[in-house]
Amino acid sequence: MDEDKWRALAPEDDRPRVSVAAPESPGRHAADPEPVPSTKIRTAGTLSHAALLLSPLLGGFFLALMALELAKQGEREVGESEGFLLGAGQIPHIRRRAKTALGITAVAAAVALSVLVLVLLRVWLGGGAEYGDNTV
């Protein structure tokens, strides 16, 4: 009887019927949210790129530290999210870039410090031999 009722309400065209029910996948509830990329991991990736670019100028040090910290927090959040946050595969690359930036920054700081020490030694110890005004 219900079928006759639905046929009476249905349009009389031959269009295929589209199901409005969401397809259910095994192991996932229909009310579960869709997986999304982790914003902390995306931010850590951006910071690690900026740190790598600014590391020769010593500005990449703090950016690399922030990238490492955000990557650690993002990794923890991805693990706790039970699959609803994505991006764990990017964490090794982020860490590698941030550690490379820290290494480049350390080398740049060592070079800058060496140049500073040499300049100060030259000023304090004198500029070398002085020969007077009437030498040829």
Give me some keywords for this one.
single chain; 136 residues; mainly alpha; two-stranded parallel ribbon; 59% helix
The stretches of 5 or more residues where confidence is low (pLDDT under 50) are none
Distance between the termini: 123 Å
Secondary structure category: mainly alpha
Distinct helical segment count: 4
Rg from C-alpha positions? 32 Å
Q: So what's the overall shape?
A: rod-shaped
Helix content: 55-70%
Strand content: under 5%
- How would you state the average pLDDT, rounded? 83
In N-to-C order, the SSE pattern is HEHHEH
Q: Major sheet: size, sense and barrel closure?
A: 2 strands, parallel
Number of strands: 2
**Could you give the order of strands across the largest sheet?**
1-2
Brief characterization of the structure:
With about 140 residues, this protein is an all-alpha fold. The model has no long low-confidence stretch (mean pLDDT about 85).
What does this structure look like?
There is one protein chain. This protein has 136 residues and is mainly α. It has a domain of 81 residues. 59% of the residues lie in helices and 3% in strands. It contains four helices and two strands; from the N terminus they run H-E-H-H-E-H. A two-stranded parallel sheet has the order 1-2. Helix 2 runs antiparallel to helix 3, helix 2 runs parallel beside helix 4 and helix 3 runs antiparallel to helix 4. The longest helix is centred in the last third of the chain and has 35 residues. The radius of gyration is 32 Å and the shape is rod-shaped. It starts with a helix and ends in an 11-residue tail after the last helix. 21% of the residues are buried.
